[in-house]
Amino acid sequence: MTRRALVTAVFGIAMMLARLAGADALDGVLEVRSAYVNIDKGVFLLHARVEYPVGPAIRTALQDGITLVFDLEARVERDRRFWFNSNIVDLTLRRELTYHAVSDRFVVRDVRSGDQLTFATLDEALDYLGRVDAWPILVEPQLDGGSYDISVRAGVRRGHLPTSLRAILFWTDDWARLSEWYTWSLPV
Amino acid sequence: MVTAGVKGRRPHGLRRVAVGQVLLWSFIGLGAFLLLAKSVQNSSQFGRYQLWILLIDICAVVALSVLIARKLWRLVRDYRAHVPGSRLTARTVGIFGGLVIAPLLIVYLSSLEFINVGIDSWFKVEVKQGLSDALGLSRAALDLRMREYSSRTQALAEALTGATPASVQSRLDAERRTSQALEVVLFAGHERILAASLENPLESLPSRLPPDLLRQVEQHAPYVSLEPQAGGRYLIRTAAALGDAGDRGEVRFVAAIYPVPAQLAALSEAVQSSYSQYGDLAALREPLKYSFRLTLTLVLLLAMLAAIYGAIYSAQHLVRPVQDLIEGTRAVGKGDFGTRLPLPSRDEMGFLVHSFNDMTKRLRRARAEATQSQQAVERERERLAIILARLSTGVLAIDRGMTVRTANEAAGAILGTDLSAATGRSLPELAASNERLGQFVAALAVRFAGGREEWREQLDLDGSAGRRTLMCACTPLPGEDSDMGFVIVFDDITALLQAQRDAAWGEVARRLAHEIKNPLTPIQLSAERLRRRLLEGMNERDAEILERGTRTIVQQVETMQQMVNAFSEYARAPEMHITRFSLNQLVTEVADLYRSQDPRTRIRLDLDGHIEAIEADRGRVRQILNNLVTNALEALDGIASPLLEISTRLEEGADAAYAAITVCDNGPGFQRELLGRVFDPYVTSKPKGTGLGLAIVKKIIEEHGGRIDADNRPEGGARVRVVLPVKDSTRSATGSARERRDQLRRERA
Lengths: 188, 749
Known about the structure:
The complex is a heterodimer. By secondary structure, chain A is α+β, with helices and mostly antiparallel strands.
């Protein structure tokens, strides 16, 4: 078991306990509404529509200065009949949402590229975050026949958290949620 | 020996415990400090390992808890079972634990308070207010710029209203250069660009419009917004609708982007960054406290559990020699002197253990010596007991209360009672059922009452079996205790005295026979001669007197001759003619003879058929029977229904077989005072007897190697019992009476 797997397992348990406790600052629906891929010149492009929770608690927290991290995980697995599926692709699209107090605007920043957009309202920002279009996740040479499953999952958590506190906050942080996996077969 | 210099020093064990405690505290303090410092200063680096550190800490806490619970359970179990040293261990653990836990708790509570106060101080109202004020100031400064740019944009929109397309571009360029805008663009509808003036037209295109801008200008309202950019830059985007519509009837508006001066942008970005960081930290206020509390609690738990474990371990280590000493003392108390304790160290405890081992060694040696002495005494006592048992002399040890301490077999045999189980019992109590012992005890009591503790006297004890004469000597036992008692040594000298008497009487008889018998014949002859010579010349009256006198002389001389013959027979020792004959047949013959002589007396025989024949002098055995039967018949004279019983029995002795002849009658029996002397010469209760009959009988029996006893039957009448050896070889082995008499004479000489 790798460290990441261990952390994920502990994180999952903490999430479950947090849900059982009923305390959830991210009140509302978090789910992948729809998702599909199309192939453009040998590149598989992912399109997804995600509904993120929105509520006064999130708005207040953002205006108080915290940062929310929105993750979209995509995983492609090759089906195997007599063994566990093999993981072909495991990608995460990570974006941060912050409230810029000086400009009174909501800023969405792509963590990997550093690009950022500003929005006048939280709804516009969340709407932007919920629309993922043409995200390249796979190229054809990575596939060698057989059947493949693609899964998409969205997650929200509090960002800018010191790593040292992350373990402790497993059982106290209600600013972390994961959606169910949205899975379908990859059209090859 | 404990010297004065050693007293002031701390024991080695305690010193080690103290050093261990100091090291433990140092490590715990250093660890806690590192934990706190790293979590505050370099959280990202520490965070990589924090999960593992937490897991290790929790495992350590669990492991220590299990170890301590196990040790405490054992301690409680030993305490309840009163195991040696458990109470001392519990007390020591309590003291150590208290000394460790109390300061730990104080430090813990102080640290908690420090954490709460310290973290709360980060989020003071003044800080937040300062940030808000800075934010407001930044906004005000930027608002001024934004309003200025918005006014310019609105003025440009008014100027462009109704302007010809040819002049639009020049106006846009002029405005961009004048205002140092990055771009000034004229839109028609949503995103249709009618004209644009860009700072670098070859490198970039007009930027994409935000949706709120379009909504605003469609309503002919001016638009202005501040847009933060990557790298801490700020842009001011403005828009204003033109007064006229486009050729397609859509709204025409001009949009411009102005850069915020770098200094103002940097200051604003600094304010924004501080605000954001403060927000993040403020949100982490409680989790931070929780994190520090958890870390501190774990450190405290680890330190406390380690300290308790160390306290238990140290206490057990300290108490172990004491436990060994307690167990060793118990073993010594039970007599196990072989116990040797391991030396724990070279401190005072080690010295104590060494002294204990030395003590057990000395005790072991002393016990070995005592055991040897005891064995020697025991061997001596057994030797003495054997000697006492084999002694024919009676030995009796009693205390002043006349309780028997020791009595040998001979004492019991002489006193006629079994004294083998008499040790510890009172002598008067034992004497209650024994007449001879009673007289013996009475004789002792008289002498003790008179204050005589050391004496040597002859005691005569009368009993139904006759008189016994004891030569008795009493001596007080030596010793420190005043009640050591007495030892009484006594011999039964009855047989010795009898032998002495027999020897004396034999000598008397021999002298009488020799000295008296010789003059009797001349006396008788002289008397007869006097009668023959003088009788014829005397008158009738004188003749009658002479006749009567000489006849009396002759008769008395004959009587004296008979008596002298009897003495002569008693004194002489004729050759014995040993033959083998049937004893029962001889008894029957004698009985038949006396039945015919005295038909009035009933003579009953009880003969043992197992006696086939004995080897003895038949004539002298007949003489014995005649004497005994004659004595019995004379005793039965005048008895209403006289009965004489003669019985024979074959008795197996230790070395040979014996034939016992018992003659009983229902007459008056022996006089009590004569019982011990009936076999002495001249001892008789009959008016006409010479007193030599039973003496001769006894002499004949002793010459046969037998013995004779006389006593009275409980139902009345006399009983005489004769025991003769069946084989003549037995007589030869025991020796004849003459030989015994000769031996006695030699002893007296």
